[in-house]
Amino acid sequence: MARAPQVHRTVPALRRALETFRAAGDRIALVPTMGALHAGHRALVREARRRARRVVVSIFVNPTQFAPNEDFFSYPRSFAADLKLLGDAKADLIWAPTTKVMYPEGFATRIAPEGAALAGLEDKFRPHFFGGVTTVVAKLFLQTGPDFALFGEKDYQQLRVVTQMAKDLDLPLKVVGVKTVREKDGLAMSSRNAYLSAAQRAAAPALYRVLRQSAARIRKRETIASVIADGRREIARAGFSLDYLEARHALTLQPVATRKDGPIRLLAAARLGETRLIDNVSV
Ligand code: PAJ
């Protein structure tokens, strides 16, 4: 039986617990999450354990990264199952603040990321999103003071934005990206996959299939513009409403015209009914 991780809900209790880790000379890795944990989150915890003696997982459904019309209130919450998964994954500490602890009355400061956060991808469809993410992630970094922080490539623009924020603010930690964990049929694992109907779930793997095929065609020197145009059609034909399919520079997320413009990442977001899926691959 794995030992149950400690759970803390206030900043002073968190700080006291982390102090004992540090006093023992242990390095700390942080895995920020919104709960509803699955094998993708578990892979982040596994990588965290490889890097540091102590693993802290935060669970906080962050209201500031949801727009009023988005799914903050219906976002899946499964604390008991999350605790069990994190016990099995041998996390040491769960940081689960309430909204009042994170955003007390009078809270008035926000991070305003630029660069990759204004690339015209997620930000175009969720303009409030990266301000909310960077604000909460900066707080989590300052609350826990980790040596490493683990983020999934599944949310590729988020990974780039958080990496840049840590660099720009001289935060003394290393942001580490972890490969996307997928279902057997290729669908990227996501807490939001639970929203899909059986028919939508059957259609969903098309997103990754098109991304992979498009990457293979670009590697074979087909022109990016025509590959992307075909990919957009394919995704629509599979039953999605497409938000975007784009070829971007893998680091800056700026548009690329040819393979010579640098390492390329293909990024897509598309909706099946009300459920929005995102995915990406390297070329
Ligand atoms: P959440 O969606 O819970 O994701 C937490 C972390 O798990 C993110 O770094 C995300 O990229 C990673 N992740 C999700 N699905 C994955 C998969 N299939 N494979 C690998 N990693 C995966 O992302 C957030 O929460 C929030 O925006 C947060 C960073 C916690 C700030 O509120």
Structure report:
The chain is of the alpha/beta class and 283 residues long. It folds into two domains: 6-178, Rossmann fold (3-Layer(aba) Sandwich); 191-282, Pantoate-beta-alanine ligase, C-terminal domain (Pantoate--beta-alanine Ligase, Chain: A,domain 2), CATH 3.30.1300.10. The protein has ten helices and nine strands. The strands form two sheets. It has a six-stranded parallel sheet with strand order 1-4-3-2-5-6, sandwiched between helices. Helix 3 links the parallel strand 3 and strand 4.
What attributes does this structure have?
2 domains, about 280 residues, Pantoate--beta-alanine Ligase, Chain: A,domain 2, globular, binds pantoyl adenylate, 6-stranded parallel beta sheet, 10 helices, 3-stranded antiparallel beta sheet, about 40% helix, alpha/beta, 9 strands, Rossmann fold
